[in-house]
Design a protein that fits this description.
By secondary structure, the protein is α+β, with helices and mostly antiparallel strands. The chain has 6 domains: 51 residues, Orthogonal Bundle (Helix Hairpins); 240 residues, 2-Layer Sandwich (D-amino Acid Aminotransferase, Chain A, domain 1), CATH 3.30.470.30; 102 residues, Nucleic acid-binding proteins (OB fold (Dihydrolipoamide Acetyltransferase, E2P), Beta Barrel), CATH 2.40.50; 73 residues, DNA polymerase, domain 1; 78 residues, Orthogonal Bundle (DNA polymerase, domain 1), CATH 1.10.150; 89 residues, Rossmann fold. Helix content is 37%, strand content 19%. The protein contains 27 helices and 23 strands. Strands 13, 14, 15, 16, 17, 18 and 19 form a 7-stranded antiparallel β-sheet that branches. Strands 2-12-11-3-9-10 form a 6-stranded mixed β-sheet. The termini are far apart.
Length: 704
C-alpha cells in the first residue's frame, strides 16, 4: 500500500469515527486508538506534503500562521429575522400565515445564542466558512472553523451546498475557560465569537466550540420542506438541534413525518403552540448551551417562496425573544477615546435612547475584537443594555445597516497625537507617554476621590488648566502657584475657588502612601494589590524599592502572596523599576507627600472586630461614604472582608441608594441587606434610635 493509499484509508477511518461520535455520542474505537491513527496520518502528511487534502482531519489542530480574515461576498441570502417579544405576536404571525394558506405547517427551533456562520461545500468538501457580516459580505474564517470537530470537513455525499449554522460554546466549558482569564467574557456567545476571530487557528482549536446547523441551500435540486432539509443535513453529517417542535393539524401526523425523516423532536398540533413556547422557556436553563429565544418557520419551501422577503427578513419566519432588549438604537458614529495608559477604547455614538431611567447616547465597545464579534458597522440597529445596572454596552446587532457599511475598523494612528497605534493582546494602545490625552488622564486619575481626593480638580477643571498650559504632569499640581490664577485674572478662577483648590492640594500631602501609590496608575497596582502588599509588610516606598532590587527574587516573593499571580507580579516589578515611575515617586517625596504608612502594629486593632470572618459586598451611593470605598474601609477595620458580587456565601450587602441588581440578587438568595443608617449605628458613627438600634443588634446577632 502506498503512502497516498494509506493516508486516504486513515482519513476515511477517522472521518467515520468522528461522524459516529457526533451522531450517536459514542465512538467505535477508544480515544487511544483514535489518537494513534491520527498521529500516523499526521506523520505521513508531514513527510509527504502531497498527501495533504482539504478534508484532512489534521486541519482540526489549526495552524500558527496568522490570518487577516479577508472579506468575501455571500452567494445565498443571509438575512435577519423579524422579532417578537410576546407569545401573542407569534400567534398573530401564525394567523396571518394561515389566512394565506390554511395547510401550512410549522417548525419551532431553539434560537442558539452563538455566532452565525455560513459553510460552503463544493463536491462535498468544505471550501469556505464565512461570518454573517452585513448579510451581503462577511469574513473568511475557514482555517478557524475547520478546527471545530462538529463541523464536517467532508460530507457523506459529493454535493455542492451552502449551510447556515450557529457556532456556540457549551456553558460548562465557558465557565471553565472564563476562570482562567484575566478579563472574563460576559457570556458564552462573546467568547465563541472572539475565538472564531483568533489570528491563529491553533488558538481556536484549544476552545471546544460546537455548532448546530439549521438551513441548507443546494446548488442543484433541494427539498420541498424544512423537515426534509434537516433530515438531509443530518444524513450529510451536520449536527442538527434535536430540540425542535413540529406543528401540523394533528400531532399524530406530525409524529409520523418526524419518524419518516429520522428526526428527534416534539410532535404537536397547532393548538399546542402556547404550551410549547412555555415548555422551551422553562427548559432553557437546563440546557448545556445558551438559547435566547425560539424561531418559528413555515415548513413548506414552496409556500416560503410565495410569501417572499422584505429587504431585511423573510416573511415566512419569526424569532421569539425570551427577553426584550432594554433599548434599541442606531449607531450614528464610532470614535475612540485614549486613556491614561494609552489604551484605546472605541465608543459608539448612538441615537438617544431611554434606558433604565436615563438617556444613553454613548456606549462602550471595549476593543476591536468585541466589535468584530458583533460584526458591528455604523448605521446598524443595536440592542443596548446596562451591565451591572451601570455601564451601557452593545449586546447584539438587531438589524444590519442598509448603507453597505462593513465592520468598523480601528484607526492606525492615535487621534490625539498621531502616534502609530500598537496592539497588545485584545487592545490597541498609543505608545506615546506624552500624548495629551494620556497626560490629562493621569492627572484626572491622580486627583480622583478614590486616589488623592483633591476637591476642585475634577475633569473639567483639569481639562481647562491643561489647555492653558498650567498643568502637564502630576508634580505640577504641587509646584504650581495657584494664587497666580487670581492675580492673572484667569476667567472662572475667583479667590474662593482658587483658595479651595490650593487648600485641597496642601491637604493631599498627608494622604496615606497606599493611595499615593494607587494614584500613579501603574499597571496592576489596584487598591486590592496594594492592600495585599501592605499586609505583607511592604508599606513604604523604601520597602518596595528594596523588594525589586533583585527582580527574580521579587517575583518569587510576590507570587507567594495570596491574590498575586505571575502576571500581576511581573507587572508590579515592571512598574516599580520603570525609570519614569521612579523619578515621579522621588519628586513627590521631595514635594512632601507621604511615602511610608508605618510599620504594622502588633497591638490589638483600634476597632472592635465585629465583622471578623464575614464577607461584605457594598453597592449603591451613600451620604456619609463618598466614595463608597470608604464604607468598605470601615468594614475592613472591623475584620470584614470584601467581595465584589453577591452569592450565597456573602454575609451582608451594604446597600445605598440606586442599589440595582445586587440588591435584587441578595433578595433572591436571602442575603442580609443593611442600610446606610443601620450600618452607621453598627459601627457607632450615629446616635441610634430605638428602632435602628434593634435592627442593628438583630443584624449583628445573625452574623456572629
Amino acid at each position: 500500500m502506498t503512502y497516498l493509499e494509506r493516508a486516504s484509508e486513515l482519513r476515511n477511518l477517522l472521518e467515520e469515527y468522528q461522524r459516529a461520535y457526533y451522531t450517536t455520542g459514542r465512538s467505535p474505537v477508544s480515544d487511544l486508538e483514535y489518537d494513534r491513527l491520527f498521529d500516523e496520518l499526521s506523520a505521513i502528511e508531514k513527510e509527504h506534503p502531497d498527501a495533504v487534502t482539504e478534508d484532512s482531519p489534521t486541519h482540526r489542530v489549526g495552524s500558527d500562521l496568522s490570518s487577516d480574515f479577508p472579506e468575501v461576498a455571500h452567494t445565498i441570502p443571509v438575512l435577519s429575522l423579524d422579532k417578537a417579544y410576546s407569545a401573542q405576536e407569534v400567534f398573530t404571525f401564525i394567523d396571518r400565515i394561515h389566512r394565506s394558506n390554511g395547510a401550512a405547517s410549522f417548525v419551532l427551533e431553539e434560537k442558539i445564542d452563538g455566532f452565525s456562520i455560513v459553510l460552503y461545500y463544493r463536491k462535498g468538501i468544505l471550501e469556505r466558512a464565512v461570518t454573517r457580516g452585513n448579510g451581503s459580505v462577511g469574513n473568511d474564517v475557514t482555517p478557524n472553523v475547520k478546527t471545530i470537530k462538529a463541523v464536517p470537513l467532508r460530507l457523506s455525499k459529493p454535493v455542492d451546498i451552502s449551510v447556515r449554522g450557529e457556532v456556540f460554546l457549551p456553558v460548562e466549558e465557558f465557565q471553565r475557560i472564563n476562570l482562567t482569564l484575566d478579563e472574563p467574557y460576559a457570556n458564552p456567545r462573546n467568547l465563541a465569537a472572539g475565538t472564531i476571530r483568533r489570528n491563529k487557528s491553533s488558538e481556536t482549536a484549544r476552545v471546544p466550540l460546537s455548532i448546530f446547523c439549521y438551513e441548507g441551500f443546494w446548488a442543484e435540486g433541494g427539498f420541498d420542506d424544512h423537515i426534509k432539509i434537516l433530515s438531509e443535513l443530518k444524513t450529510l453529517g451536520f449536527p442538527v438541534d434535536p430540540n425542535l417542535s413540529y406543528f401540523r393539524s394533528s400531532a399524530e401526523d406530525a409524529a409520523a413525518r418526524l419518524a419518516a425523516a429520522g428526526l428527534e423532536g416534539r410532535a404537536c398540533s397547532y393548538s399546542d403552540l402556547p404550551d410549547e413556547i412555555e415548555h422551551h422557556t422553562r427548559e432553557r436553563k437546563s440546557l448545556p448551551y445558551e438559547i435566547d429565544g425560539l424561531v418559528l418557520k413555515v415548513n413548506e419551501i414552496g409556500f416560503r417562496e410565495e410569501l417572499g422577503y422584505t429587504e431585511h427578513h423573510p416573511r415566512w419566519a419569526i424569532a421569539y425573544k425570551f427577553e426584550a432588549p432594554q433599548a434599541q438604537s442606531v449607531v450614528e458614529a464610532i470614535d475612540v477615546q485614549v486613556g491614561r495608559t494609552g489604551r484605546i477604547t472605541p465608543m459608539a455614538r448612538i441615537k438617544a435612547a431611554k434606558l433604565a431611567g436615563s438617556v444613553i447616547r454613548n456606549v462602550t465597545l471595549h476593543n476591536q475584537d468585541y466589535i468584530d464579534s458583533l460584526e458591528l458597522a455604523v448605521g446598524d440597529t443595536v440592542a443596548v443594555s446596562k451591565r451591572g445596572d451601570v455601564i451601557p454596552a452593545v449586546e447584539s446587532v438587531v438589524e444590519p445597516n442598509t448603507l453597505g457599511n462593513t465592520t468598523w475598523k480601528m484607526p492606525s494612528v492615535c487621534p490625539e497625537c498621531g502616534a502609530t497605534l500598537e496592539k497588545r493582546g485584545a487592545h490597541h494602545f498609543c505608545p506615546n507617554r506624552n500624548c495629551p490625552a494620556r497626560e490629562k488622564g493621569r492627572l484626572e486619575f491622580f486627583c480622583a476621590k478614590k486616589q488623592m481626593d483633591i476637591e476642585g480638580l475634577g475633569s473639567g477643571t483639569i481639562e481647562d488648566l491643561y489647555s492653558r498650559g498650567y498643568l502637564r504632569t502630576i508634580t505640577d499640581i504641587y509646584t504650581f502657584d495657584w494664587s497666580s490664577l487670581v492675580r492673572d485674572g484667569v476667567p472662572g478662577y475667583g479667590e474662593k475657588k482658587t483658595s479651595a483648590i490650593a487648600k485641597a492640594v496642601e491637604e493631599s500631602r498627608k494622604t496615606p502612601f497606599r493611595r499615593v501609590l494607587a494614584g500613579l496608575g501603574m499597571n496592576e497596582f489596584s487598591h486590592k494589590a496594594i492592600e495585599i502588599l501592605q499586609n505583607a509588610g511592604f508599606r513604604s516606598k523604601q520597602s518596595l524599592t528594596d523588594l525589586v532590587a533583585d527582580s527574580a527574587k521579587a517575583l518569587e516573593v510576590l507570587t507567594s502572596l495570596d491574590g498575586i499571580g505571575p502576571l500581576t507580579g511581573a507587572e508590579i516589578v515592571c512598574g516599580l523599576t520603570d525609570p519614569d515611575n521612579i523619578a515621579l515617586l522621588n519628586s513627590l517625596e521631595e514635594l512632601g507627600l507621604c511615602m511610608d504608612d508605618g510599620a504594622v502594629s502588633e497591638a490589638e486593632p483600634t476597632e472592635a472586630q465585629i465583622f471578623a470572618g464575614q464577607s461584605w459586598c457594598v453597592t449603591g451611593t451613600f451620604d456619609h461614604f463618598q466614595p463608597r470605598e470608604k464604607a468598605m474601609e470601615e468594614i475592613k477595620k472591623r475584620g470584614g472582608t470584601e467581595v465584589s458580587s453577591v452569592s450565597r456565601r456573602t454575609s451582608c450587602l451594604l446597600a445605598g441608594k440606586n442599589a440595582g441588581s445586587k440588591l435584587a440578587k441578595a433578595a433572591e438568595l436571602g442575603v442580609r441587606v443593611v442600610s446606610e443608617e443601620q450600618f452607621l449605628a453598627m459601627i457607632g458613627q450615629k446616635e441610634e434610635t430605638e428602632s435602628v438600634q434593634g435592627e442593628a443588634q438583630e443584624i449583628q446577632g445573625s452574623l456572629f
